[in-house]
Structure formats: C-alpha cells, structure tokens
Design a protein that fits this description.
By secondary structure, the chain is an alpha/beta fold. It has a domain at 4-42 and 103-206: 3-Layer(aba) Sandwich (Rossmann fold). It is built from eight helices and nine strands. Strands 2-7-1-8-9 form a five-stranded parallel β-sheet, with helices on both faces. Strands 4-3-6-5 form a four-stranded mixed β-sheet. A hairpin with a 2-residue loop joins strand 5 and strand 6. The radius of gyration is 18 Å and the shape is globular.
C-alpha cells in the first residue's frame, strides 16, 4: 500500500546531454542548473588530469586509473567510457540519491555512456547538442586553447561518429547556434520531462 507521503513525492528524471567536444554543452548544462529549481548536474569521475581552473568535486572527480577500474569492478558506476585515452564515468550512488529526492539529474556524457544509460534506464531523456556546422565547431575547439593541433583533429574526427550515433539513440537534437536559444530549448525539454514524470507518478498512485 502506498502511503500519502509517498504519493506526494515528486518523481526524479534522468536527462542525458551529449555532443561533440567544443559544442558548448558544458556551458548549456551549467546555465540550466542555475536557472531551474531541483535540477542537479552529475559530476563525472575521470582519469585525466585537471585542466586550468578545474576543481576536484566541482568539475570532475579526478581519480587514478586503478581507482577507476576498482569502481567498475564494484559496480559503482552507472556508465563509463574511454574517450581520447582517458576514462570517464558517472558515480551511481550520487545519481540515485538525487533521483530519489525527486530531482532532475543531468548527465553530461559522451554517446558511448549515453547508450549505456539508455539501456539501463529506458525512460532517460536523451538530448544531443549540435554545432551550426563543422567550421564553427573547429573554431570553438581552437578557442579553448586546451588541445594540440593533433588533438583538435582527433576530436573533429570523433564528432562525425558521435553525430551518427546520436541519430539512433537520442530523442532531441538542439543546435547551439545561439547560446540563449539553445539553453531555452534544453530547459523546455526538461520541463516537459518533469511534467511527464509527474503525470506518470499520479497514474501509478491511482492504481493502488
């Protein structure tokens, strides 16, 4: 029997946001979290070293490859993938806690991880951020001043594969030509997901 307290709880929802390197997905996700209530951005674990200005626990959990592999073996990651020689993964416990608290949880991950999440959580909402065109993407990656020429070329090559995969697994495609417009689109997708989760919760509660 479901208690009244359980019926009054707001359902959480998982939102996966992916896109090529340099497309602006990090900026979009951070702005969405600032502007919306009860929206939580999951912090990924990674084996890559911190970049300029990045902080442990805020931008990523920076851990060793040995610790990362231990987490895989213990089943502590919701998803994980190797991207450009580094391992990235989502700590499962933190996501579960946020969902149980009724929060919207955004996972900013690559398409490899996105496919794993969709398989494990079929009701996850999948959002892919696209650049206006390839030339613009190359310029954005170059402006970050974080990658060598070879790394930029590798990232641009990987972008085509990610976009092809996204067309199979992702529900929404958002073009980041105008940042404010793209942020607004993602916020609207989340509002719709939240309303859908609440409606489904009400229907399930009424069955008991």
């Amino acid at each position: 029997m479901t208690s009244q307290a359980d019926q009054n709880k707001t359902c959480g929802k998982l939102i996966v946001v992916s896109g090529p390197s340099g497309v602006g997905k990090s900026t979009i996700c951070k702005e969405v979290v600032k502007r919306m209530e009860d929206v939580h951005l999951s912090v990924s674990a990674t084996t890559r070293p911190p970049g300029p200005g990045e902080q442990n626990g805020r931008d990523y959990w920076f851990i060793s490859k040995e610790e990362f592999r231990e987490r895989i073996e213990q089943g502590l990651l919701l998803e994980y993938a190797e991207v450009f020689g580094n391992l990235y993964g989502t700590p499962k416990e933190k996501v579960d806690e946020a969902l149980q608290a009724g929060r919207i949880v955004i996972l900013e991950i690559d398409t490899q991880g996105g496919k794993q999440v969709k398989a494990a959580c079929p009701d996850a909402v999948m959002v892919f951020i696209l650049p206006p065109d390839d030339r613009e993407l190359a310029q954005r990656i170059g402006r970050r001043a974080r990658d060598s020429a070879d790394a930029i070329e590798t990232r641009l090559g990987g972008a085509g594969n990610e976009i092809a995969a996204a067309k199979q697994y992702y529900d929404h495609m958002v073009i980041n030509e105008d940042l404010e417009h793209a942020i607004g689109e993602v916020m609207q997708i989340i509002r719709q997901a939240r309303e859908g989760a609440a409606a489904g919760h009400d229907e399930n509660s009424g069955e008991r």
